[in-house]
Give the backbone structure.
Amino acid sequence: MPTTQELKDFSTQVRRDIVRMVHAVKSGHPGGSLGCNEFLTVLYQEVMDYSTDFSMDGEGEDLFFLSNGHISPAFYSVLSRSGFFPVEELVTFRKLNTRLQGHPTTHEGLPGIRMSAGSLGQGLSVAIGAAEAKKLNGDKHLIYSLHGDGELDEGQIWEAAMYAAGKKIDRLIATVDYNKKQIDGSTDDVMPLGNVKAKFEAFGWIVLEIEKGNDIESIISGLNKAKSLTGNGKPVCILLHTEMGNGIDFMMHTHAWHGKAPNDEQLASALAQNPETLGDY
Amino acid sequence: MKKYTYTEKKDTRSGFGAGLAELGRTNENVVALCADLVGSLKMDEFIKENPERFFQVGIAEANMMGIAAGLTIGGKIPFTGTFANFSTGRVYDQIRQSIAYSFKNVKICASHAGLTLGEDGATHQTLEDIGLMKMLPGMVVINPCDYNQTKAATIAIADYEGPVYLRFGRPAVPVFTPKDQKFEIGKAIKFTEGNDVTIVATGHLVWEALQAAEQLETQGIKAEVINIHTIKPLDEVAILKSVSKTKCIVTAEEHNILGGLGESVARTLTLNNPVPQEFVAVNDKFGESGTPAQLMEKYNLNDKAIIKAVKKVIERK
C-alpha cells in the first residue's frame, strides 16, 4: 500500500497533468477534474482491486464507471499513471486520431474504459447492469461509479436510484462529486438539489458523507467505511464534498473553470503551485 | 409464379417470445429486461423458465438501456423488451452513447411497431424507428415478416456480436415462411421470380406484396417479390441484381417514407443503377386510432396500394 505522502505526490502529479493537458488544446474541464483528483487517486492507488491487464468483462475485479465524463483529464491521468496505458499518450488528449477523446469512450479501445460517457445521467444505470452481471457470475467484487452533482438533475439518475435500492444492488458504491457547482453557476441557483442525502436515503440507499473530499486520509477512511457497508441489501452512496479547481488557488471558489483552459501565465502559476513529483509526461 | 398460402395468422411478437424462450434453454448468457410490458412482449415463458436471468425495470426505459449496456460488460447478451416507440425515440441518446457508441452487445427488441398496434393511437405507434436506428453507426436493423421469421431472427441475433434493433408487431398476420428457415442477417430472400417489376418489402408488408403479385399476374405483370428483413446492412447485391432485370422497383414498409427501407433502397439505386422507384409507406404523417386493417387501408399500406405503385412505376420505365 502506498503511503499518504506517496498518494499526495501522485495527486500532485495528476494535477499538473490536468492543467497541462487542458492548456495544450485550449479546451477541456479542469475544475471538476481537479476536484475529483484525490478521489480517483485513492480509488486506483489504494482501494480498488483490479488488473492493468485490461479485459472488458473485468471478471474477478472491482470496476469503476465514470458517469460525469467531462472530467476525463483526471481520469486519463490516473489511468495512465496506474499502468493502463503509457503516460506519454496524455499528450494526445483531445487531438485528432487520439484514444483520449474529449469525453471517455470505448470506441477507440483505450484500456481502462468500459463505457462511453459525456452525455450525463447514464453511468449509474450502466454500473447497475455491470453489478447485475457480477451477481449472475457469482463474482463478489465491487462496482464503483462517480457522478457530478449537477448530473443529479437528470431523471435517469433517479430511475437508476430507485432500481438499485428496490432490487438490492448492494455491491455498488456510487459517489457524487458534491461541489455544489455546475456550468451556469451554483447548483442552488441553477437547479436546487434540496437535501441530497435525504433524497438518496428516501430511495433506500445508505448515504455516507466525506466532508473533506480533497483530503487523502478522509477519502481513504470514507471509502473503507463504504466498502464495509456493502453486501447488506442496500446500495451505498457517498456524498464527496469537494472543491472545484482544488490545488490551484485561482481556480478554487468559483465555477468559472468548469470548462475553460488556462492561458500560458495561468498555467505557469498553476504549475508553480504544484511542483513536479513523478515526472511530467 | 409460385403461390404462397398460410394456414394460420399469428402475431410476430409471439415469434419473438418463442425465440427468446428457446434462447433461454440454449444460451446461458442470454438475459432479458422489460419495462413493465412482459405480457405485451410475450416474455412470460422465458421469465418462468429463467427467473434469475430476467430484469424487470418498471416504466423506466432509459434506465433499462443503461442496465442492458452494463450487463454486456459481464459477458451477458441482454434482450430489452418494450414498444417500438419507447425502445427508440424515448431513449435515443441512451442507445446512442451507452449502446451504439460503446458498441455493446445489446439486442433492442421492439414490439408494436408501425401503425398496426391499432386503437392506442399515435402516442403508442411509431413510424420513425427504422430511420432513428439505422442512422446509428454499427446498429443492425431487422424487421421480420411473420411469426416464423421473427422467431428465427430472435435466435440468430444472439450469435451476432454487436447492437441490434429487432422490430416486430402486435396484430396477427399470415404465417407463410417455413418453420425451419435459417435466418441470415443481411441476406434477402426472393419469394417470386418476375421480369416486369421488383417489389422489395419488409415486415408484414411482404405478405401484402405477395398478394399484390398474384393479382398482377392475372393482369400479365410478373413481379419479383424480395423480402428485405434486414434493413441495415442492406442486401444491395440482391436488389441490384433484380432491378438489372426488371428496370423498376417498388418498396413497401410500415414506416414513414422518410428514413425507412425505401430511402435506403433509393440511395443504393442512385449510386449504382438509377431506375424508377415508387414508395409504399406512410407519407410523413402521425398515425391514429383504428383497427389494423382500417389503418392499412387509410394509410395505403396494403396489396391495393402496392398494385397501384407497381402500375405507376412500370409506366415510368
Remarks:
- The interface with chain B takes residues 56-59, 63, 65, 105-107, 114-119, 121-134, 136-137, 139, 155-156, 159-160, 162-163, 167 of chain A (CB under 8 Å).
- The mean pLDDT of chain A is 97.
